[in-house]
Specification:
The structure is a homodimer of 229-residue chains. The first copy, chain A, is α/β, with parallel strands linked by helices and 229 residues long. Chain A has a single domain, classed as 3-Layer(aba) Sandwich (Rossmann fold). Chain A contains eight helices and five strands; from the N terminus they run βαβαβααβααβαα.
Chain lengths: 229, 229
């Protein structure tokens, strides 16, 4: 990859997307980060995303305001309580109440708009289908279908220009592999926030599914977890 | 179609989407209309959409605020002037500057979220590939790819439940056929606004591509155009 090629990177402020940003940087893309304030209870992650984007030296960082809370249907945006202390089996089977309907579809659609305006053919997203929460829009078959659709949605698609690619470098990795990859690339995981239910000062709860997946990842990677719980 | 089945209908307040709403109503769906305030200069259409939704007796109408103007790249949202008095040939060839990058992709993604929460498998959109402006995200191949993606994006897709359908009843119709269909269904086209550049009181300019396509449609349908130009 030659320098000067642009990539739009979805950045939540969490462990996965921060690792993806570092991977895109290591491939020498010019980085355009995009973060959403979508009505999530843990909106403190947006501030983390800003710090992470600045540390990575992105060319631009857009914070997009959309309110997914108007639809309801999720513990992340509505009045439903965030589940705590579920077993590993519960976490990785079925679709939990923290699932936000069509969230990745919506997020990717905004990256597509920005990529088209930037003249960019590379979008990065930190979906992962190993140590994940069973969200349908994290699966490889979803991403493949999205990419196909995206190539028909835009001007470039009509004109048969360069093909748009949705990069999912974490797709086949365990959480431990993701962390090891990030450490090798110099990621400072103390900047990241995985927790769905942090307190006001940003300390992680340690008990939600996302905290548990994170803890397990650090444990399996045999790396000290610097997260403040 | 039995009554009690829900449909989410994209409603801009224009001629096409208003006709689609009437078609969905004639098929006895319970109507859930969705309209976007997306930074369009002609945001007066949102008020029209509210009147149209009320007249159609929808069960709910969501107005979603998103700012597509942050990306630029379109005459509909940015500082670029709306083209006027283009020839029929200019209007129907190539992708014009009024194209908003990924707009239908984004709009459909929000309908998908709402449909999932409502437990609804039917989404209606007024895309048309005959008398249209050459936008890539109005073509049947785009809609087909979107539908395929959408069925992988959601909980229903994972669980192999009922298939989600993106209905495009206007896809093969000329503008004249759309108008005749709407008239047969009792649509009051005086409520609709097609113009990209209306004045403050909502009168249409009569010269933008959308006004020209509308005028041509009424002329070819041999129906009096009640629009105030």
């Amino acid at each position: 990859m030659k320098s000067g090629t642009k990539a739009v990177v979805l950045l939540s402020g969490g462990l996965d997307s921060t690792t993806v940003l570092a991977i895109a940087k290591s491939r020498r893309y010019d980085l355009y980060a995009m973060t959403f304030r979508y009505g999530q209870k843990h909106s403190i992650e947006v501030k983390r995303a800003q710090d992470i984007a600045a540390a990575a030296g992105v060319a631009d960082h857009k914070i997009v305001d959309i309110n997914l809370g108007v639809f309801g249907g999720s513990a992340l945006t509505g009045d439903i309580a965030i589940p705590k202390d579920r077993s590993a089996d519960e976490i990785t089977h079925g679709i939990p109440i923290t699932y936000v309907p069509a969230r990745n579809t919506i997020f990717l659609s905004f990256t597509l708009a920005w990529a088209e305006v930037l003249g960019c053919n590379d979008i990065f997203i930190g979906v992962n289908a190993v140590d994940y929460s069973g969200y349908p829009d994290c699966r490889p078959e979803f991403i493949a279908a999205y990419e196909k659709m995206a190539n028909l949605a835009t001007q470039a698609g009509v004109e048969g220009e360069e093909k748009l690619t949705i990069h999912t470098p974490l797709s086949g990795m365990s959480k431990a592999e993701i962390i090891r990859t990030g450490i090798d690339l110099g990621v400072d995981y103390s900047l990241t926030l995985s927790c769905y239910d942090p307190n006001e000062s940003g300390a992680a709860c340690g008990h939600c599914d996302s905290c548990q997946l994170r803890k397990k990842g650090f444990r399996e990677a045999d790396i000290t977890d610097v997260t403040v719980y």
